[in-house]
Design a protein that fits this description.
- It is a single chain.
- The chain is of the alpha/beta class and 506 residues long.
- The chain has 2 domains: 144 residues, Chitobiase, domain 2, CATH 3.30.379.10; 326 residues, Alpha-Beta Barrel (TIM Barrel).
- It is built from 15 helices and 19 strands.
- An 8-stranded parallel beta barrel has the order 10-11-14-15-16-17-18-19, surrounded by 5 helices. It has a 7-stranded mixed beta sheet with strand order 1-9-6-7-5-3-4, with helices on one face.
- The radius of gyration is 23 Å and the shape is globular.
- Keywords: Glycosidase, Hydrolase.
- One of its GO terms (biological process) is carbohydrate metabolic process.
């Protein structure tokens, strides 16, 4: 990011007159998106039609024109690597690219956001929102910005404890506010099944009622219907966030074997599971029921998915030898590709067959399989997303005394989430094979929206800045001061956060 102060007194900003005559067509009208961002800060958004932006001096005090303008001449951006003046965006696996650069200019004459693509315009408005101070003023400034990595995401577990569409829309709002582009939903596990599969209705008939601790409250439905999943994707797409569904295979499958006994060797359904242990459930490659099940489930999910990716899991399956594990993962990836999607998988899938463009999500710094599979996968054209548990797993306790979270990867305070380098996170992999960064939050100990958000905030903004900014542009002391200014906005939005002592909160 390049920030050029323009001098003079900060500008009072009570309202903006929105001019979108040169802004193209976003997934939804610009006025609702801009109002969604600015009105919680006390800024009224007025429609300006096609009026020119040159009449800033004619506006009432505290009212500035806000012009959104699509143009190829939006400046080169300040980031190096993926974001330095080249078409960029969420693009792994051959997906359509998007250039996320933007320039934001704030002056007494008005506010102008210029970008080559609509997503850059929205990024510019998001940055404007972050510049607004508590007293409703904004500095005169020119900001030129572009992301370092195209894949900037958040992985959310909705299985261990169920979080429904209303909470997930709030998560999309939070992800979008920090310019994340991917929401990865962990939808299946031992404790439950969270997405309707039309060809396999028993998955949600049984797995949609259970979670950690047992049954969901009476009358509560614990899964997304086909329509709800579509609506969530559309809601996210309007904010330039892509939803990636995960069907975890071949481990983490107790909800599947509980619903369909034919998936087990003896044909007997497994019992429902409400604990938090891992590594005990599995599928069998030589079971004739396995392939039809995978084709039904992954085929239905791919057909429901609007984005280019389907995550097929692949983690924590110690009961399978390499040959059996590879057979199931190869089949899962093949089914996804046949459906026109690009597979995403956890790091363990590097030991299976990997085709160019496959996305591997690195999570376990212990790397018990050794680094050779990662190196081979990178050489085969795999792309890596860095989610190291010791830095990016936001369900880790902040401190040993923190009442929520786990500790298997250590304690992740705010600075731990900020001070690490994605290009060096995946051992045995060159920096240019790293496609991006994803934070992750698992919900074994989280039962409410407030608990969920208190683990995301303030650490998610730290990971988001890490994913956006090159090392030379990051500074912990600057970040801890800036993130403190976001707290009033979080309170206004009703987003709970953990007041870590590493920040001087207002």
């Amino acid at each position: 990011m390049s920030v050029e102060p323009q001098g003079g007194e900060p500008l009072a900003l009570q309202a903006v007159r929105l001019d979108v005559s040169a802004a193209g067509d976003p997934p939804v009208g610009w006025s609702p998106l801009v109002a969604e961002l600015l009105e919680p800060a006390g800024i009224t958004v007025r429609s300006g039609g096609d009026q020119p932006a040159s009449g800033g001096s004619q506006e009432a005090p505290g009212v500035l024109p806000l012009v959104l303008r699509l143009t190829d001449d939006a400046g080169p951006g300040a980031a190096a690597g993926h974001g330095a003046g080249a078409p960029d965006g969420v693009r792994a696996g051959g997906a359509a690219t998007s250039d996320e650069r933007y320039t934001l200019t704030v002056s007494p004459e008005g506010v102008v956001v210029a970008a080559p693509q609509p997503v850059g315009l929205l990024h510019g408005v998001r940055t404007l929102r972050q510049l607004v101070t508590a007293d409703g003023s904004v500095p005169a400034v020119v900001v030129r910005d572009a992301p370092r990595y195209p894949w900037r995401g958040l992985s959310v577990d909705v299985v261990r404890h169920w979080f429904g569409p209303a909470v997930l829309r709030r998560v999309v709002d939070l992800a979008g506010a920090y310019k994340l582009r991917v929401l990865h939903l962990h939808l299946t596990d031992d404790q439950g099944w969270r997405i309707e599969i039309p060809s396999r209705p028993a998955l949600t008939e049984r797995g949609g009622r259970t979670q950690v601790g047992g049954e969901l409250p009476a009358g509560e439905r614990g899964y997304l219907t086909v329509d709800e999943f579509r609506e969530l994707q559309e809601y996210a797409a309007r904010r330039f966030v892509t939803v990636v569904p995960e069907i975890d295979l071949p481990g983490h499958t107790n909800a599947a074997t509980h619903a369909y006994g034919e998936l087990t060797p003896d044909g007997v359904p497994t019992d429902a599971y409400g604990g938090i242990e891992v590594g005990f459930s599995r599928l069998w490659a030589d079971n004739p029921a396995t392939e039809p099940f995978l084709r039904d489930v992954l085929g239905d999910v791919a057909a429901m998915t609007q984005g280019p990716w389907v995550h097929v899991g692949g983690d924590e399956a110690p009961q399978l030898d390499v040959a059996e594990y590879s057979a199931i993962m190869d089949l899962a990836q093949r089914v996804v590709r046949e459906a026109g999607k690009t597979p995403v998988a956890w790091q363990e899938a590097a030991r299976a067959g990997i085709e160019p463009g496959t996305v591997l999500q690195f999570w376990d710094p212990k790397v018990e399989t050794g680094v050779e599979p990662f190196t081979r996968a990178a050489e085969a054209g795999a792309r890596f997303v860095a989610s190291p548990g010791s830095n990016a797993y936001l369900d880790m306790k902040y401190t040993p005394e923190h009442p929520l979270g786990l500790e298997w990867a250590g304690h992740v305070e705010l600075r731990d989430a900020y001070d690490w380098e994605p290009a060096e996170a995946v051992p045995g992999v060159p920096a240019d094979a790293v496609e991006g960064v994803s934070a992750a939050v698992w919900t074994e100990t989280l039962t409410t929206q407030d608990e969920l958000f208190s683990m995301l905030l303030p650490r998610l903004p730290a990971v988001a800045e890490l994913a956006w900014t090159t090392p030379s542009g990051r500074d912990w002391e600057s970040f801890r001061v800036r993130v403190a200014t976001h707290a009033p906005g979080w309170r206004t939005q009703g987003w709970s956060f953990h007041p870590t002592p590493q920040v001087d909160w207002p």
